[in-house]
Structure formats: C-alpha cells, structure tokens
Amino acid sequence: MILSNDRIRSLLLDESMPLDRRLVISPILNWDTQLKPGGSSIDVRLGQRFRVPRRTKIDRLDHLSDFYMENVEQYKDVYHVLVGDYFVLHPRQFVLGNTLEWIHLPETLAAYVIGRSSWGRDGLVIATATGVHPRYSGVLTLEITNLGEIPVRLYPGLTIAQLFIHTVVGHAGGKAIPSFSGSTNPENADAAGDEKLIIKRIAKDRGFEHLD
C-alpha cells in the first residue's frame, strides 16, 4: 500500500516512536511544496555533490575484474556545488548526484524513486525506479542523464525526484543493513557482487581468457 501525503506527514511528525523505528526525511525545506495536498509521494531535492565520469586510459569497466572498484575511482571526479550555484549537464552526459535529504526507513516501510516529469520533458532521466529497502539510512544516489539536445543547469536545492513510500507486508526478516546505508555522497557499486566468483569459474572451465 502506497502512503498518502497526509500519512507521510503524520509519520514524519510522530515523535512517539524510537528514532530507529521512525520515518525520517530531513531537512524538509517546504512542507507544502514537497508534500502536495492530495498526492502520494514526497518530492526530494538535489544535493550538492556530483560524481562525474571522465575519459582516462581505462579501456573498460568490467564488473568481473578484481580491479573494478579501483578503476571506478580513477574514472570519476567528485564536484561540490554550493546551493545557489549550478552544475551544467551536457547532452548525453551521465553523472551521479545525491539527495539533499537524509532518509531513514524503519523496517515496516520501503520506497522507490522516480524522476519528476517536469525534468523528464526537458530530456533529463533521473533514478528510474530505484528501490530503497527497509532500514536504509543515508542520502540517496541519483543516476542523472541528459538525453536532450541542449545543456541543462542543475541547481542544488531544487526538487528533482519523487519518493513513493509503501508498507512492507510481513516481516522484513533479519537485521542486515541495506547496501549503501550510511551514504553521504553519490556512490558506485560492484554489480557483480557475490556472483563474480561463480561467473569467473564458469568462464575458466569453458576456456575464456578475457578475464583479469
């Protein structure tokens, strides 16, 4: 069940629960703008940090490589843009941004992020259907791409995406902390994860030699 804006507001203002069991989204700069009456999502704002890909001598990003995360660090620069200033996103350029808000979901709630249609009509694609698991705490990383034909100025502090919050049916199970919990900056991740060793073992058995 997706929560209405009235329900989101009431949970954010409810101080009767212990902090680890509360819904927290902070700071909210304008309650009426970010939680529009009659809606079922809360708008989140663009933060001040951008992780920008740059051309280097790296010829690929390979998630099966033992050096993937090391290569990613060489592949991207981090920029801090103050509120009031702007970041220019050029056509076909991709960057990682983050939300201005720190978000904590209790174990009874999960969420997903969808870019605002007003940005999408300018050719900006933002964090399509990004899931946020129960017990997550941190800022959210936003995947931002300009598919339009002209550069777009991105101003930290502007609402850029919508967070839809829904209840979790049944017990979420365990006490594992979701990936990226505690994030304060836009982050990359190794998509292969635990599957890396399995795929590399199969590749070796079949005689493939393209792996590091």
Helix-strand category:
alpha+beta
- Here the CATH topology equals Deoxyuridine 5'-Triphosphate Nucleotidohydrolase, Chain A
Q: Any low-confidence stretches, pLDDT <50, length ≥5?
A: none
User: Biggest sheet: strands side by side, in what order?
Assistant: 2-14-8-10
Helix content: 10-25%
CATH class: Mainly Beta
Number of beta-strand segments: 14
Radius of gyration, rounded?
A: 19 Å
Taking the sheet with the most strands, its summary is: 4 strands, antiparallel
Residue fraction in strands: 25-35%
Superfamily (CATH H level) name: Deoxyuridine triphosphatase (dUTPase)
Give the overall form: globular
Cα(first) to Cα(last) distance is 46 Å
Q: Counting H and I runs of at least 4 residues, what is the number of helices?
A: 5
Q: Please tell me the total number of domains.
A: 1
CATH architecture designation = Distorted Sandwich
Report the average pLDDT across residues: 84
**N-to-C order of helices and strands:** HEHEEHEEEEEHEEEEEEH
Task: Name the descriptors.
single chain; 212 residues; alpha+beta; Deoxyuridine 5'-Triphosphate Nucleotidohydrolase, Chain A; four-stranded antiparallel sheet; three-stranded antiparallel sheet; 14 strands; 17% helix
Write the topology of this structure.
Blueprint: H1 5-13, E1 24-26, H2 31-34, E2 42-45, E3 49-53, H3 68-75, E4 76-80, E5 87-89, E6 94-98, E7 102-104, E8 109-115, H4 117-120, E9 124-126, E10 130-132, E11 137-138, E12 141-146, E13 152-154, E14 159-167, H5 195-205
Antiparallel strand pairs: 1-7, 2-14, 3-4, 5-13, 6-12, 7-11, 8-10, 8-14, 9-12
